Amino acid sequence: MNFTRWSARLPGTQRRAARDDRSPVPAARVEYDRADTGSGPPDSAPDGPGTPSAAPALEDISARDILGRLPALVALVHGPEHRIEFVNDAYEAAFGPRPCGLPAAEAMPELTELSLLPLMDQVLRSGTPRTVKSRKAGSGNSYTVTCTPVRRDKNKGHDGGVLVYAADVTDHAEAAERLRASESRHRETAVTLQRSLLPQELEQPDDLRIAATYQPGGTDAAVGGDWYDVITLGAGRTALVIGDVMGRGVRAAAVMGQLRTAVRAYARLDLPPHEVLQLLDGLAAEIDASQIATCAYAVHDPNEGLLVYSSAGHLPILVRDEDGTVHRAEGPTGPPLGTGGWIHTSGTIALPPGSTAVLYTDGLVERRSEDIDEGVAALERALSGAKGAPQVVCDRLMRSLNITAEHDDDVAVLVVQHPARTGATAELFHNAALDLLGGIEAAPRARAFATGVLTSWRFPVELCDLGVLAAGELVANSLQHGTPPMRLGLRRTDRRLIIEVTDGDDHLPRRRRAEPGDEAGRGISIVASIATSWGSRRTPGGGKAVWCEFALPQ
Q1: Using CA atoms, how far apart are residues 416 and 433, in angstroms rounded to an integer?
Q2: What confidence tier does 291 reach under pLDDT thresholds 50, 70, 90?
Q3: Which of 18, 351, 361, 427 is spaced 20 to 30 A from 180 at the CA atom?
Q4: Which contiguous run of DSSP H or E holds residue 231?
Q5: What does the alpha-carbon distance between residue 283 and residue 333 come to, in Å, rounded to a whole number?
Q6: How confident is residue 50, by pLDDT bands cut at 50, 70 and 90?
Q7: CA distance linking residue 196 with residue 256, whole number of Å
Q8: Alpha-carbon 182 to chain mean position
Q9: For the CA atoms of the chain, what is the radius of gyration?
């Protein structure tokens, strides 16, 4: 085959002009190599200093000369069967000699390994070049291959063909694979760290049912710092936390772990939500001034049926009533944690029996193509129809907002239900309270009231005696160190008995060792010895509450 004919159809070349019959001397083809022979063309003078050497015309260089010397792998096939017309030296060095005239499917198995034959058919039909990147052959080498159509010469009856140009990119592919493996290990480390820092098992308060879901972003998204937590505070109260550290990777997960640990420590102080965020704000700036975080902290008190919450730049809490109406917590929202210079405040939202609250991070509702308020509105619509157990609600919300394994951001969702109890279950939950006016008759009245209530709740005699003793000591402590108004509250759940005394003085009691000659100072020590747990806190309206709990026999 005359390869000069093919060169006229390669991109960037032109067909040789027809020879002018009137020209007495045809254009001579360069058939010599000055470097090999050391002599010039006939009747020419040797090149002198500064004399440029003559370059051959493009038309005088054959396609075989051009393609044969390329370092890339080149093969030329023609016809619908892709019969081999030419392979260059680099191709033969990589895959061995290839006999001309045979179909590529029989004589070029490497094209099958690289899945190129269907691509070559498409290129031949469409006349459009196609490129595939980093295809691995059976030898283990990787190639980037371009298939370029060669036009037909209908006047001479020649079929069209395909020029296969393959560049060996093995080193590049191996480097990319090592980079992907490194990124995968880094991501796996971050995901493992993130999951290990989240609660391995959620605390389940007596009065609430809770479930949570965390899903890291897809493989193309680095792990973020989303977290959630549930903290039982005592006396039936529960703290709910959701947060998001800005940033990605191990560093964000590590900062998240420190903040979550700090939240648990501050929660044990039983402070109002805004004071907890105030402490957390200062700590966040000390951990890493370059990273900020959003957080919502809420406290549920079953006696009040409210969520008292505070938000540091976080998205609003949503509450669904039993009839499907969804409310958005519209209370004040401060700036994110770590910014400093802001006094956070608390707000309230009702959480009556039968209602469901949802706390979430921005990955659930934020989309690049729409405003985040639209995402929150979509979540409200999904929540209005979400019924069932908390985990079922979690899953439904994730599906409704199209959260898949390839989602581009981390997602954390915390679902809290305050169930409406009826029938036999309702009999396990009771409340009773007595206002104390002070005076010497207050303690006997409190003991008599506690005896009657605990007996009516059918507690064992031993538990009734311990409950009456604890109530008497707490009331006596309040009478001695507190100020009116005073109130004794008794509450039972399916798992514990809670006794709480409130008064108007905000001085919190502490347990101390009484000397043998002391006539006071033993009340709190007695309560701490007989009760499962005890604690105290300041109340929002001023004053304090001192409580203790007894675990009920199973």
Answers
A1: 27
A2: confident
A3: 361
A4: strand 225-234
A5: 19
A6: low
A7: 11
A8: 19
A9: 41
Lowest mean pLDDT among 13-27, 103-117, 445-459: 13-27
- Dihedral pair phi/psi, residue 279, rounded to 5°: -65, -40
Element containing residue 525 per DSSP (H, E): helix 523-530
Confidence of residue 475 (pLDDT cuts 50, 70, 90): very high
pLDDT in tens, 51-63: 556 666 766 677 6
Q: What angle do CA 359, 299, 240 make, to 5 degrees?
A: 40
Of 371-380, 395-404, 442-451, 509-518, the range with the lowest mean pLDDT is 509-518
Q: Among all chains, which residue has been given the structure tokens 């016809």? A: 79
CA–CA gap between residue 225 and residue 251 (Å, rounded): 9
* Residue 211 neighbours by CB under 8 Å, 6+ apart: 202, 389, 390, 391, 393, 394, 414, 415
Please give the Cα distance from 100 to 83 (Å, whole number): 7
**244 pLDDT higher than 70:** yes
Residue-level pLDDT at 522: 80
Q: Which of 394, 387, 365, 354 is nearest to 211 (CA)?
A: 394
Neighbour count for residue 122 (Cβ, 10 Å): 14
Cβ contacts of 460 within 8 Å, gap of 6 or more: 553
User: What value does the mean pLDDT take over residues 243-272?
Assistant: 87
What pLDDT, on a 0 to 100 scale, did the predictor assign at position 103? 93
In which residue are the tokens 């260089």 written?
Answer: 61
Residues 517-546: tens digit of each pLDDT: 555 668 889 999 999 999 999 988 889 999
Rounded CA separation 546/235 (Å)? 9
pLDDT reading at 197 higher than 50: yes
- Report the candidate in 116, 85, 89, 114 with the shortest Cα–Cα distance to residue 102: 85
Identify the DSSP state of 25.
S
Q: At what angle do helices 461-481 and 442-456 cross, to 10 degrees?
A: 150
CB 299 within 8 A of CB 307: yes
The neighbouring-strand residues paired with 498 are 491, 549
Amino acid at 3: F
pLDDT of 36 above 50: no
If we measure between CA atoms, which residue out of 191, 98, 97, 174 comes closest to residue 136?
A: 174
Q: Strand 333-334 to strand 306-312: parallel, antiparallel, or no bridges (unpaired)?
A: parallel
DSSP 369-419: TB-HHHHHHHHHHHHHT--SSHHHHHHHHHHHTT--TT-SS-EEEEEEEE-
pLDDT of residue 41: 46
- Which is nearest to 466 in space by CA: 550, 547, 535, 522? 550
For residues 52-86, b (16+ Cβ closer than 10 Å) or e, as one string? eeeeeeebeebbbebbbeeebbbbbbbeeebbbbb
User: How far apart are the C-alpha atoms of 178 and 186, rounded to whole Å?
Assistant: 12
The span from the CA of 370 to the CA of 349, in Å, is: 28
Q: Decide if 223 contacts 194 (C-beta within 8 A).
A: yes
